[in-house]
Amino acid sequence: MSSPSTRPHTVVVAGFGSEFRRDDGVGLVVAGRVADTMPDTFDVGPVVDPLDLLGRWDGADLAVVVDAVRSGADPGTVRLVELAGPPSAGDGDGAVGGHPGGATSSHGIGLTGVLRLSRALERQPRRVVVVGVEGHDFGDGTGLSAPVAEAVPGAVALVARIILEARGCA
Amino acid sequence: MTHGGSGRRTVGVEGLSRVEGEGSLRIEIRDGSVTDVALSIFEPPRYFEAMLVGRRHTEAPDITARICGICPVAYQMSACAAMEDAGGVEVGPAIGDLRRLLYCGEWIQSHALHVTLLHAPDFLGCADAVELAERDRPSVERGLRLKQAGNLLMQTVGGRAVHPVNVRVGGFYRAPEPSVVAGLAETLRVAVDDALATVAWVSGFDFPDIEGAYRFVSLREPGRYPVGAGRVVSSDGLDVTPAGFAELVVEEQVARSTALHATLGGHDAYLTGPLARYSLNSASLPEVARQAAASAGLGATCTNPFRSIVVRSVEMVFACVEALRLIEAYEPPSPPSAAVPGVAGTGVGATEAPRGLLLHRYTLDGEGIIRHAQIVPPTSQNQATIESDLRRVAQDSLALDDQALTWRCEQAVRNHDPCISCAAHFLDVTVDR
Description:
heterodimer; A: 170 residues; alpha/beta; 3 helices; 5 strands; 25% helix; disordered N terminus; B: 433 residues; alpha+beta; three-stranded antiparallel sheet; 15 strands
């Protein structure tokens, strides 16, 4: 797989999660369908370790990260978060170091930690958008719960619209 | 955090960073002496051993790989070794070499991550890897290159970089094409140079002058540095098979921790991992790694836990050189796996995960169904020794102010790269003085 930096206008779509924890796999499903329908899109998933984005999203014009979220909203709710600025250490994703304040692992560096590191290394994508799909069932096993499966087409359409708008096609 | 009163000082880290998993550390100091050290692990227990019961013997590698995203190969290799032991099967040298190549990939990516992004910031006064990258971008770039080289090895041999899918009991589902493996050589040549540069980099750090009296335990393979096979040896003369070692290991529950504490015989703490492997096997390192170690000021053994970052870097040199050797000598195993029957009995497998010896023991019934599973990860085995280290480091560092003492204690934990997720099948620091 060639580096996105070798492409003229690059869009990276990264599905986060585990297909073996039911709704946690929704990011992989959405990213996969986007890549299937938009061949010019650079699919770098599945991403288990966000650190692996380094080298895969370097210098991309747009990076869309799709992941399951758990915020208390209704299952299947789709949210969009624009990661506009570098988060500061300890703001909830300090797994790169310092006191973690919400990080769940250290060997796994979180998304905002990787974005901070990318900026320090001058490899950051020009724009990073996170599309989150509210999950319901994060238990063991494969397959999405009904409300999350029903939300997939809408999430795919949202990601496609973001990409087309970024390319000036919409 | 620190709480203090007359003659009383408490140093606490409620959420230890840059270690894998969740845990806390509390150190009590009374009248200038460390009176209590408690490393608590509170990551939810993961019940993997119970989940394995009732599954087929062939399922153990894929199930146990899910215990850890950093060292899945170690879990797969120990599970395979145990099942092959139970079935009385020895895989051929070609399968053994391909396994060793895959394992080198895991050592390279795990050590590169810990040395560069998690541990080096401690020595350079950086809050984290981002600050380190801002101050010393080439070193971080080099570490990331090494990690990617390790990932590439795992992807090529194991099918993907996290939780490889090409491993099965008896060997592999498919042997990679020679041309594909040959294509790794240039990446590994660069990685050897990067690993050597990393050794030179970390050897220039300032190390506290603290030595530990360790009982080291590791594997030993005849004529080569131990990775995926061998007998279990110790610095005080133990020399047993993995099955014999399993008989000696006693795991106990400790109220503050969801990880079991392992000792030998129920009373002797011991240490596995890079310091142990190196101190028991440095003579078996390839020449280039031995020269790198000597240039970095290491002797034949190393008992300063803070120098573990140097040892880990030397092991990266080893893993890169060894991987290159295996790549250049690669011949696809044919067939890519050996048949391993599921027969009634007990099998034990021990291999060297990046952070230490990983022991699996399974009892199977006549249908090859797992009836009992025991997984003893490195961090469980090291936890008592890490607490001893902390007691000594804290006592030797009492002149430091609370902030510096807390930093030093966290660093002392990270010296051993604990993988709490593995051990909990959990870290916070509190110093009370």
